[in-house]
């Protein structure tokens, strides 16, 4: 399909340069990055990005939960405000595309668009959300959830990592305990690698996420009794790890029963004292239940609650659900999704429609604004791992779609209905 | 039963003072101590004990694996050498009696004996073995195993904790990388709290351990694939923690099948990356199989090896046994055990015979010397926990038995057959 001449494209060289630079921070030397939130590596990446924003004429804002914003007013103080972003934190030993691509593409898209435009009609803000990943501090999407009013600021600041350090303390330490008011945008766009292989399998290069799955993050505490693994008679043992093992197997069984309508995991287990010759007295399980439908989430939670006492008792332990973080299932803005597909068609890029099962900052922001995540493929569906990979061509194709969406939204003065109608 | 006037008794006040003092190092404030080997707390305890030995006229020796010895020659250079000891390291958040009692009682017994004796016929050495517990560095009994020639020195020095620090490095850091030759004693005695409630149940106050159970310490590595817990389809997940859960349940099942002839545990699991929203790529299980008979150890190891592939495959993972530390089952010196019982009778202390399932330094030393562990009761059988407790009366009763055993062995010039015959 021939390219429409009026389409705006991203400066692919700028995008590449930004991606290469940001990948240096926390680089593990094997293609991955180890840049958990508010670590020195994360601070270094943010410091660099902040300088990059300033050098390009953006005003830098940091709010009370440490979200970093770069705002550029191209159309006067009363113009609509378009926010584009993602996050610079990574999983421990994670990949270099997850999050960073969305932030780099946001900056490159706005830079590319403004250079080719004489009379912009919108203002723009690039967002780097604090703690999207939730690896070091739970829950994930913390900065965007405070932004969207879903989570209380003081509660968020008081979250602690496994060493007892709080978000608030680490924000101060890294220099990101800000005092600026967050911007109040009119819509939010985020571009991200897929994290599954559906696009690769289908040969698609662009996909809007139509729905976001709901999730229950359930923390289960198993309590046994600390004792010597030698002399303590087997029948007297109250082994918290054994109790945990029965629960882990059951959590998986729930997903097997529900087939493709429920995803489950127990991916972190904190064992105390975790010494080879002490019967463990305590195990804390970080369990996730994810489903596209609330009814399935309810069923899985009820099933787990019903099963826990017997599972724990098989190891003479007790199990208690100590917290549940609930992320409801929902839909992204359908106009933004439609616009994505139309632009993809105009670029001749194969497209498909997807749901997102993983969380994204756009899920939180979507609670208060029209929002969307646009996906590009990830080779083999790999995510959260050093060998996560998306080719420069796919990064640029996604960047092109984002940039032309910016152009159409800008031309429509931020009116999405108009944007859908305004462009041939 | 009336007390035999000639029995030697421990200075109970000295023993109490020593126990109170040593319990300060690494005190957790709730009765327990947190004094893992070669930590600052452990170094402080050793530094104090070393000064205490020196002040009392003992020569201090530290060998190449960091065993600390206090030697006092009471009977000339060619006299038999009696070694008594235990260890000052504790489990993380462990109790204050395990190990420390044996070292304090050793010093108090020799001090009490020598003050009441005009012409000692033996020399004495108090031993504080390096890394009995094996909580920070595996395997346990490391210093005594090097002493007994069961483990290579260089290999022992190269063991690393979970932060990557080696035994050798931490010996240097704490000032216990010695250059002295270890003493060459003729026999070895150790007194220890029981770690089970058999004595309490039976009303016994003294028990020699006749046998030591064998143990296999098996390290199992489960390998899956690191991925996002959100989008990764359930059927594609290779979840190392789920594989671990199936193995943990099976390890317990082996003990249930074998009833009281096999004790098993998986007490430590190192999970990577242990992040709530990453399917874990790796889990290392620290598994123990303990039995009084070698045939049972062989059966349990063979059963586990046979079961591993299927258990791991249920989670689409693989499992590999990466190391096995083998501690053979065996018997302590029966003459020392008989002497213990005879002395207990003379003190009118109710006695019984036990096996030890947990490891003790005497198990390693027993490979090359006549050796014995004497047990005193522990309330509720608690061990490796802050509320581990033995009353001052029971500590003193054990100390009395130890001291009078020293007297009888000394009077017999270190000849155990003679010691058994020589005293009415």
TrEMBL record, chains A, B:
<dbReference type="Pfam" id="PF07687">
    <property type="entry name" value="M20_dimer"/>
</dbReference>
<dbReference type="InterPro" id="IPR011650">
    <property type="entry name" value="Peptidase_M20_dimer"/>
</dbReference>
<keyword id="KW-0479">Metal-binding</keyword>
<dbReference type="InterPro" id="IPR010158">
    <property type="entry name" value="Amidase_Cbmase"/>
</dbReference>
<feature type="binding site">
    <location>
        <position position="384"/>
    </location>
    <ligand>
        <name>Zn(2+) 2</name>
    </ligand>
</feature>
<feature type="binding site">
    <location>
        <position position="192"/>
    </location>
    <ligand>
        <name>Zn(2+) 1</name>
    </ligand>
</feature>
<protein>
    <submittedName>
        <fullName>N-carbamoyl-L-amino-acid hydrolase</fullName>
    </submittedName>
</protein>
<dbReference type="GO" id="GO:0046872">
    <property type="term" value="F:metal ion binding"/>
</dbReference>
<feature type="domain" description="Peptidase M20 dimerisation">
    <location>
        <begin position="212"/>
        <end position="312"/>
    </location>
</feature>
<feature type="binding site">
    <location>
        <position position="133"/>
    </location>
    <ligand>
        <name>Zn(2+) 2</name>
    </ligand>
</feature>
<keyword id="KW-0862">Zinc</keyword>
<keyword id="KW-0378">Hydrolase</keyword>
<dbReference type="Pfam" id="PF01546">
    <property type="entry name" value="Peptidase_M20"/>
</dbReference>
<dbReference type="GO" id="GO:0016813">
    <property type="term" value="F:hydrolase activity, acting on carbon-nitrogen (but not peptide) bonds, in linear amidines"/>
</dbReference>
<dbReference type="InterPro" id="IPR002933">
    <property type="entry name" value="Peptidase_M20"/>
</dbReference>
<feature type="binding site">
    <location>
        <position position="87"/>
    </location>
    <ligand>
        <name>Zn(2+) 1</name>
    </ligand>
</feature>
<feature type="binding site">
    <location>
        <position position="98"/>
    </location>
    <ligand>
        <name>Zn(2+) 2</name>
    </ligand>
</feature>
<dbReference type="InterPro" id="IPR036264">
    <property type="entry name" value="Bact_exopeptidase_dim_dom"/>
</dbReference>
<comment type="similarity">
    <text>Belongs to the peptidase M20 family.</text>
</comment>
<feature type="binding site">
    <location>
        <position position="98"/>
    </location>
    <ligand>
        <name>Zn(2+) 1</name>
    </ligand>
</feature>
